[in-house]
Specification:
By secondary structure, the chain is α/β, with parallel strands linked by helices. Helix 2 crosses helix 9 and helix 7 runs parallel beside helix 8. The protein is globular and about 50 Å long.
């Protein structure tokens, strides 16, 4: 660890990461003189005098096919940060439904991963088990999309409109709603609101099945079947249920380019922050 300022990293987790990296380098018998810096770094909190809202970000793993969609997760973080939000990340401490090889979309039989552990890849290690999330501590909660939302937070991916929601996720969303906190969901995640918030108004984008632009348009019908009201929106549109304070955006329900998805998430986060800071 010489030359990388190891002594200044006092956290036990960081020391373990450095030690593991050193062992790996030793095992590889690398002759390179360059150093690799690996470690945990928390997202800095906004000072009290500039903080505009406290936001919980609920992750579902790491990777579009079995976790949180990375562009969506990172876009939410960037726009929350730019808005001055104090963000704390959470994830359920439970096994993923399964693990997908992202190079070919096939299930990796026999491999198991933990949702909380995988979410730490997005959170740079600074993620907390969802059972410690309290609605009273926040002004809003945001749930990015990705198949993890439909596999690990609920089972929509396999049951469609007959889906159930993870009990802890259901309790968390209902607690935020009961306390009149803002709830933001993108991509496939609005199906969770459709199930646990009866009569909610939301969007998952387009409704025309078979459309190349909206490959998951059938989700709109599933949300309606669960009792929600669906509003058709363009990729950068936002649906706001003002009574329930639920904000939804299509994101990668639309077959768009990364910057278009970022535009979608920015529109959602801007609206979430506007509602969350009203009266502050």
């Amino acid at each position: 660890a010489a030359g990388i300022g190891f002594e200044q990293y006092a956290q036990p987790q960081v020391r373990q990461v450095f030690a593991a990296a050193a062992r790996t380098l030793s095992q590889q018998q690398s002759s390179s003189s360059s150093s690799v810096l690996l470690g945990r770094r928390s997202f800095s909190k906004t000072s009290a005098d500039t903080m505009s809202a406290r936001v919980a970000l609920l992750l579902a793993g790491s990777g579009v096919y079995d976790g949180t969609e990375l562009t969506e997760g990172v876009s939410c973080l960037v726009h929350l940060s730019r808005s001055g939000a104090d963000v704390k990340m959470f994830a359920p401490d439970k096994p993923q439904m399964h693990v997908i090889n992202h190079t070919n979309g096939e299930e990796m039989k026999g491999e198991e991963r933990n949702v909380l552990v995988e979410s730490a890849r997005i959170a740079r290690g600074d993620v907390t088990s969802l059972d410690e999330c309290r609605a009273d501590d926040f002004d809003a909660i945001v749930v990015p999309g990705g198949f993890g939302a439909a596999k690990n937070l609920c089972d929509y991916a396999v049951k469609g409109a007959d889906m159930t929601v993870d009990p802890l996720v259901e309790k968390t969303i209902q607690d935020f709603s009961a306390k009149n906190k803002v709830i933001g969901l993108s991509c496939i995640a609005p199906v969770i609101a459709a199930r646990v918030l009866p009569g909610v108004k939301l969007t998952v984008g387009g409704e025309e099945e078979g459309s190349e632009q909206w490959p998951y348009a059938g989700t709109a019908g599933a949300c309606v079947a669960m009792g929600a009201t669906h509003e058709t929106k363009e990729y950068d549109g936002v649906c706001v249920d003002e009574e329930m304070k639920v904000v939804t955006a299509p994101a990668y329900m639309y077959a768009g380019k990364p910057h278009e998805i970022d535009d979608s998430l920015k529109a959602m986060i801007d609206t979430v922050m506007k509602l969350a800071t009203e009266g502050k």
